[in-house]
Specification:
Chains A, B: One of its GO terms (molecular function) is DNA-binding transcription factor activity. Two copies of one chain form a homodimer. Chain A is α+β, with helices and mostly antiparallel strands and 265 residues long. Chain A has nine helices and nine strands. In chain A, a hairpin with a 6-residue loop joins β8 and β9. The two termini of chain A are 39 Å apart. Chains A and B meet through α1, α3, α4 and β5 of A and α1, α3, α4 and β5 of B. The first copy, chain A, binds a DNA duplex (30 and 30 nucleotides) through α1, α2 and α3.
Chain lengths: 265, 265
DNA sequence: TATCATTGTTCCATTATTTGGAACTTAATT
DNA sequence: AATTAAGTTCCAAATAATGGAACAATGATA
């Protein structure tokens, strides 16, 4: 249902809103538009209830109902997201430094933030080829098998980290994906010590990265930046060398935030 | 508050969800993160009520609350949008044709869809410069002063069109922006006859475009594609010539939809 | 074409959630 | 320290959501 094997859904108790968000998650995570009956089976709710809920979501533009009675994510979500992205302070401050890093290495640079158990990518800077927008931006990826994710986890206080790891369900994307909290925890402690993380083809075979953690002082944003590329071009030795520029860029981003947002944060 | 002078908000009666969406609109349309008291003034609700509503929105990740007590759009919106965009059938089918059109003309090509009184841009294909993602995609623009918007309006049945125009409030972005329903209606009738529309620097001074309408058979998508560029490079004569390739591309997109989605739609 | 099965929609008494005023806590200001 | 403003919690009353069942529309089958 979700290419990442992860869901953003969390059965929180937010009353009416919470129930509706579960539905929205259901439809947006599906691979294709869903029929009423499909959703009925997935949601396990009385028909009348479900029908009214879907109607409300459609009326608000969060879902769309086509001529064949299939529900798809609504375009109003795009408008919300465009605004959310355009004014995100963290991203705005980071952007020039991501570009510099891309220029210096010639490889793709990412910026991601931890939200729940997922990393949400806020920006991506590639080389020449025109970026397919949204290709990566906005995507939620697992935190336990991405460089940015592990870098972000290394920022958590011990207790929160253990709690988060306890709630993870591991999917083995490649042969080197972590599949237990123990080995992951060990690596995260190491990352916390050295200040940078690798992705050794753990999410996608043939793809490696080096990442460094970045955070805002109020801990609203805990994430990382990474340099990503094909394993044949990025030897582990090269990635070790690049751990320096990534960390430097991360430092400059955090300095930028202090200047721009004031010392209070 | 909104750079377009437009709002996507519509005071529908969707109970609890509707009220929460008004709040979400408020925060996402603001130019900067808002404090509790700011929202209190704007929303005009009792403090207790507002507080709980905001808490729910934050718990669901639709809003975020930073260390200074300021509310900003939540990043979960990005995840939703990324999914909404990645699988949008209309966009997927249109994409190769947009590229062709961009190649043929060398100018920027847009795909937009009518939603309420706004055009939501689904895609944008530019020339060499790496696209700043979300730069245009997802943005909601007024329908009455954009090429895509007027092309989309030309698809509406007479009655719906009149209703929609009656509800518009016109903002004079440039000297040539339509500021009355009468002149706009006249032009839209003309557009419906000839099958293509111009934007004669009506939204932004110095920017012109030619657009052609595109729609799905079930009328779920009523929008258009356009070629846009600076007035000094795009003479009205050239735009008249380009009305042919835009219409051809529009035709191919619609043909593609019929093939891909089956004859039933 | 008539019949049956499936899918989707509406209704309304019951149940649960939201509401909003006020009391309360905390932070900022004089 | 006193005062004001900002943010949070509480609970009886008002409102909205629920879910079972009846109803309608669609589509498949004989």
């Amino acid at each position: 249902m979700n290419s990442n094997g992860e869901s953003t859904a969390q059965a929180r108790e937010t009353g009416t809103l919470g129930k509706l968000m579960v539905l929205l998650d259901l439809v947006t995570h599906a691979d294709a538009p869903l029929r009423f009956t499909d959703i009925l089976a997935l949601a396990g709710q009385p028909r009348g209830t479900l029908h009214r809920q879907l109607t409300h979501l459609v009326e608000e533009g969060l879902l769309e109902l086509d001529g064949d009675g299939r529900y798809a994510p609504g375009l109003r979500l795009l408008d919300f997201a465009a605004r959310s992205w355009a004014r995100n302070e963290f991203r705005l401050i980071a952007e020039p430094h991501l570009r510099d890093l891309q220029q210096a290495t010639g490889e793709t640079v990412h910026l991601g933030v931890l939200r729940g158990q997922s990393i949400i990518y806020l920006d991506k800077v590639e080389g020449r080829q025109p970026v397919r927008m949204y290709s990566q931006i906005g995507n939620a990826s697992p935190c336990y098998c991405t460089g940015v994710g592990k870098a972000a986890l290394s920022l958590l206080p011990a207790e929160s980290l253990v709690d988060l790891l306890a709630g993870l369900s591991f999917t083995s994307f490649t042969a080197s994906t972590h599949i237990s909290a123990e080995t992951l925890l060990a690596e995260i402690r190491e990352i916390a010590d050295q200040g940078y993380a690798f992705d050794r083809e753990e999410h996608e075979a043939g793809i490696r990265c080096v990442a460094a953690p970045v955070w805002s002082e109020d801990r609203t944003f805990m994430g990382g930046i990474s340099i990503t590329g094909p394993a044949y071009r990025l030897s582990m030795e090269l990635l070790h060398q690049w751990s320096v520029p990534v960390q430097l860029a991360a430092g400059r981003i955090m300095e930028g935030m202090r200047i721009r947002l004031g010392p209070r944060r």
